[in-house]
Amino acid sequence: MQNSEDTKAIVMYESRICGYCMAAKRMLKKKGWEYQSIVVDGSSDARHEMMERTGRHTVPQIFFGETHVGGYDDMAALEADGKLDELYASLENK
Ligand SMILES: N[C@@H](CCC(=O)N[C@@H](CS)C(=O)NCC(=O)O)C(=O)O
Fold it and tell me: Whose CA is nearest to atom 13 of ligand 1?
């Protein structure tokens, strides 16, 4: 159970050794956006939850609120299209 103060609008399922996760984290940091990390290494529950929610098995998997953005490439594509800021602006609990 998460503390409500730990609950962030952006949630990223990630693993510790993962280049795409690092790239996603760099992008979020550059934006100045906080996120909640769910590390799936060694946790079959968290990995199972990620796969159930996304239908994907690769990390990272990123949610903006209830919206499944996808992996790093998907988030970068939204940024390139100028749509990521808009999605972020629509979030509560930032
Ligand atoms: N296009 C994906 C690639 C993600 C990816 O390949 N992640 C690696 C870890 S850095 C992974 O999950 N590999 C495990 C696998 O392919 O089953 C993205 O941009 O997020």
Answer: 58
Shortest-distance Cα residue to atom 20 of ligand 1: 71
State if residue 57 touches ligand 1 by the CB under 6 angstroms criterion: yes
- Does the CB atom of residue 54 touch ligand 1 within 6 A? no
pLDDT at 18: 97
Fold of 4-87: Glutaredoxin (3.40.30)
- pLDDT below 70 — which residues of the chain? 1-6
DSSP 25-67: HHHHHHHT---EEEE-TT-HHHHHHHHHHHS--SS-EEEETTE
pTM of the complete model: 0.93
Structure tokens at 34: 């906080």
pLDDT for the residue 14: 98
Distance 20 CA to ligand 1 centre (A): 7
